[in-house]
UniProtKB/TrEMBL annotation:
Lineage, top ranks: Eukaryota, Metazoa, Ecdysozoa, Nematoda, Chromadorea
Keyword Hydrolase: yes
Protein name: vesicle-fusing ATPase
Domain of life (superkingdom): Eukaryota
Residue span, MIT domain: 2-86
This protein's record includes keyword Nucleotide-binding: yes
Length: 161
């Protein structure tokens, strides 16, 4: 699963850079955000025999995602500036009010997506173990069964359950 997400993320980012180079910034922004989501899914599902090597690779991917998100932020700022400059004459004439409200809705959704992706990136690995959590044995067991076991043993959680 991680390999497919990683391959899909790479393809999407390639398309994003092509659109970016072609100055099709709206499409590039969408593709950068979409590609970063796939990279984060790939990180989540990666498995390694050597955990040290795995952490290095995950950190490398996180760095690339930060770079892509930085570029997406620059594109977003540029597009916002272009929209602001384009809106000034439109507001003076009173035309295009529905267009302005649609783009504001898209801006809010894009900003919300960027914030959620930024929050999903874990910069450092927390040093917390199950023993650090006092009590709540039932909750810890439920979390292990619902989250950790499917990640560690995906072959046991295939098909209809």
């Amino acid at each position: 699963m991680a390999e497919t997400h990683l391959a899909k993320a790479i393809d999407i980012i390639k398309k994003a850079t092509e659109e970016d180079t072609a100055k099709n910034y709206v499409e590039a922004l969408r593709l950068y955000e979409h590609g970063c989501q796939y990279f984060l899914h790939a990180i989540k599902w990666m498995r390694f025999a050597d955990e040290t090597q795995g952490e290095r690779q995950r950190d490398s991917i996180r760095e690339r995602v930060r770079g892509y998100l930085d570029r997406a932020e620059k594109i977003k700022a540029y597009l916002d500036e272009q929209q602001t400059n384009a809106r000034k004459p439109v507001k003076a004439s009173g035309n295009g009010n529905s267009k302005d409200s649609d783009s504001d809705g898209e801006d809010a959704q894009t900003k919300k997506l960027q914030e959620s992706v930024s929050k999903a990136i874990v910069v450092e690995k927390p040093n917390v173990s199950w023993n650090d959590i006092a009590g709540l044995e039932g909750a810890k067991t439920a979390l292990k069964e619902a989250v950790i076991m499917p990640i560690r043993f995906p072959h046991l959680f295939t098909g209809l359950r």
